[in-house]
Design a protein that fits this description.
With 274 residues, the protein is an alpha/beta fold. Helices cover 33% and strands 26% of the residues. The strands form four sheets. The protein has a five-stranded parallel sheet, sandwiched between helices. A four-stranded antiparallel sheet has the order 8-9-11-10. The two termini are 19 Å apart.
């Protein structure tokens, strides 16, 4: 009897499965707040959390499916996260620019990505020069380049002019780039640099028969659309735009409890994919 094809679960991390203190959205009375597990430390300080219940669900999910963390984080930023459960055999970093296999970059995949970016969109240097010229130091705290693939700004949201991001998005669109505002970060990412392309490659390698996905931001939309089924929380860019699609479930939960609900849905569906 042939082995059953695996279920692949590709999930965004920040504000989907893991949450900073500012993103927890603990709106319940203090005495009813969930117990939290720290899953990321940066510069000796706790940075990201899950509920203890979510941590247990993620451990179960790692046994029931091929779980693939799928993040816009750089490899260095991803590697400081200590997720519960078995170490993922595959992870996707830099919005699809790096495919990690047992923690090591797949150089063939990265070379293919770089060739496509060179063919299809304006160079990173043009984008960063525009950001330097137009972003006001009054509200920009940091200019960053991630893995020589894309750029992002760390900003003071309350000082950010309402129309600046929209104007940047129009400018970037003509150059084959997309813009996304997530929390205090404004991302400029080449359109061909997608999580979905890397997930399709993992599905091909693993022979997965079913792909499930979760995410909260505009950079996750292609990932959700490429999956057989997807979930988004009640917060984030996609929720703000009331974004949905036929195979996408829009969950009402916000904050860290949304992460717990997403994991319940992923685990339930991975175990009973029919």
């Amino acid at each position: 009897m042939p082995a059953q094809a695996p279920v692949l679960v590709a999930s965004d991390l920040d504000r989907t499965l893991i949450y900073s203190a500012a993103a927890l959205a603990l709106t319940m009375p203090d005495a009813r707040a969930p117990r939290l597990l720290c899953v990321e430390v940066h510069e000796s300080r706790p940075l990201s959390y899950m509920t203890e219940t979510a941590a247990g669900l993620l451990g179960e999910l790692g046994d029931a499916a091929v779980f693939v963390p799928t993040t816009t984080r750089t490899r260095k930023q991803y590697q400081r996260i200590n997720l519960p459960g078995p170490p993922p055999a595959y992870a996707i970093c830099a919005n699809g620019g790096h495919l990690l296999v047992d923690g090591v970059t797949d150089l063939d995949w990265h070379t293919r990505v770089m060739a496509r970016l060179a063919d299809e969109c304006a160079p990173l240097a043009e984008i960063t020069a525009h950001l330097q010229a137009t972003a006001d130091p009054l509200w920009v705290r940091k200019h960053r380049i991630a893995e020589d693939l894309f750029a992002y700004l760390v900003v003071e949201r309350e000082l950010l002019p309402e129309d600046w991001v929209k104007e940047l998005a129009v400018w970037a669109e003509d150059r084959g780039w997309t813009v996304s505002l997530q929390g205090r970060k404004i991302y400029a990412v080449p359109k061909p640099l997608t999580k979905s392309a890397a997930v399709r490659e993992v599905a091909r390698r693993t022979g997965a028969a079913l792909t499930l996905a979760a995410g909260d931001s505009l950079l996750d939309a292609d990932l959700l659309l490429a999956a057989d089924r997807g979930w988004r929380p009640g917060h984030g860019e996609l929720a703000d735009e009331n974004w949905t699609a036929p195979a996408i479930s829009a969950l009402p939960e916000r904050g860290v409890l949304a992460g717990e609900r997403i994991l319940r849905e992923l685990l339930r569906t991975a175990r009973t994919p029919q």
